[in-house]
């Protein structure tokens, strides 16, 4: 990969850069350059780094591509700790929670999406899809 002459962002001195490429390369002390939202260069401690608008020191951190979550139900964040649903099997869980989900409104859908997407981002997930098969009361059509 060619390194951009000037990157928007340079992440430096990572404990480990996991490239997740076909060779499954791992680069201790590595760096990653990002230009226009895409990786524009990477290297190890001895490789020349591009100049950058912004630099992040990643000492002690693992740097990896954004993770992908292909199946999520963001609205379920609101009921995941509902005690009556925690002790049975799947059918018990569904029978207990469907009546609660049936009463969701637009604000509940918004809050649950906000919380769920924030949690995903904090865990390293940058891409997700949601399966919202219950439709909130009062939702715009």
From TrEMBL:
Pfam families: Amidohydro_1. InterPro entries: Amidohydro-rel, Metal-dep_hydrolase_composite, Metal_Hydrolase, MTA/SAH_deaminase. It comes from Blastococcus brunescens. Keywords: Hydrolase. It comes from the Bacteria. This is Amidohydrolase family protein. Residues 62-138 form the Amidohydrolase-related domain.
